[in-house]
Amino acid sequence: MANRAVLSLLALLLLALAGWGVSWFLENYEQRTREIRADVSPMAKRNPFLAAERFLQHIGIPSESVTGRDHLLNPPQQPGLLLVNRLGPDLPPEREQALRNWVVFGGHLVVVAQGEWDEESGSSGNRLLDRLGVQPVALESLDEDESAARLAARESDEPITFSLPGSDEQLSVAFSRKRVLHDSRGRAEWWVESVLGAHLLQFRMGDGYITVLGDNGFLRNGQIGDHDHALFLARLAEGQPRTWLLYSSNMPSLPQLLWQYAGELVLSLLCLVLLAVWRMTRRSGPLLPEGGSVRRNLLQHLSAVGHYIWRNDHAGTRFRYTQETLEQAWRRRHPVLETLDSSARCEWIARHTGISERAVREALYGEMNGEQGLVRLSAVQQRLAARLRNH
Questions:
Q1: Are 241 and 62 within 8 A, CB to CB?
Q2: pLDDT tens digits, residue range 214-232?
Q3: Distance separating alpha carbons of residues 16 and 143, to the nearest angstrom
Q4: Which of 63, 113, 123, 186 is most buried, with most CB under 10 Å away?
């Protein structure tokens, strides 16, 4: 009983101490919210529509940020909203027709007219906009002709208030005042304009729409939270099963394409190159003996050259050349030899030189038999050359 009472007293003391500690902490500290500004994330720097994507996902609209030209060259199988940051160069005719067919069957294509209308060529720089009759005009080129009202409106930062088709809801969007759009064919079903001109043109095509904007800066990360920009994007995507935000339509580089479609091949080639470099560092023969080179005299060089000529069958060629040269020399010196055959010619030379007829025949017409035979016949040829100089 006494032990139980002591334990109960200790428990009460601990509870009282804990209560006092909590009370003291709450009296001396208070909860505050502190906002710390961080740098823009690498993903947000790369994707200007990241905030728009997160917003659409938050309100329950499936959305995806994509890059590359795949969604332009091969439109999605299902309809949806395709917002293109940069339309880029003209698509091939068959790919452009496929994109138009996607719009006809319920897709909504939103593009930006980034070029300028060229009066001489009669083009806006993109065939898709030319088919719609959209003529983008940069207001910098109209400064001299603009009225004071248009100049004042251009410098104003006030958003443009408008209502959506079939709705009384008023939206405020700060469109850029640097470029306006002109509907040369009057085919637009809905537009948003100011004193400067139109900033949005929407064309109906089958069951879908093509919306052309003068700019899309109000949909980027830094401005999506201003005015009714996010609400306007939500209204554009309303009723669509999915949204694709194409923030870059540039063609990937060759290394990116190789890594995307042939990553295994790239890794294999890289391993092969590393293996080849490693193999080149390995020696393939015995090591050369250390020590400086010894200079040889002239006779050694001549002997080495003679052995080299002998090994490569140059000795036989030189011997036959010497035979022909020596015979021609005797025939030029003594024209009588021209009328004699080889046997009579050898007999005549032997009679006038004192060398045996057999030795003369072997020296002029014989074959070389080994190294010793070459030495012996060369000695006879030297004697014949000496006798020729004396006759």
A1: yes
A2: 888 898 888 899 999 999 9
A3: 80
A4: 113
Cα–Cα distance, 131 to 146 (Å, whole number): 28
Considering the segment(s) 42-254 as one domain, its CATH architecture is: 3-Layer(aba) Sandwich (3.40)
Q: Are 219 and 229 in contact (CB under 8 A)?
A: yes
Q: What is residue 43's predicted lDDT score, i.e. its pLDDT?
A: 79
Average pLDDT over residues 37-43: 71
Q: Which residue has the tokens 């958003």?
A: 159
Q: How far apart, in whole angstroms, are the C-alpha atoms of residue 22 and residue 27? A: 9
Domain with CATH 3.40.50 in the chain: 42-254
Indicate whether 37 pLDDT > 80: no
Burial of 106 (0-12, 13-18, 19+ CB in 10 A): middle
Q: How far is residue 110's CA from residue 246's CA, in Å, rounded to a whole number?
A: 10
Rounded CA-CA distance 85/82 in Å is 10
**Residue 204, pLDDT above cutoff 90:** yes
Nearest C-alpha neighbor of 247 from the set 65, 378, 76, 384: 65
pLDDT score recorded for residue 324: 83
Residue 266 amino acid letter: V
pLDDT of residue 310: 62
Does residue 159 surpass a pLDDT of 50? yes
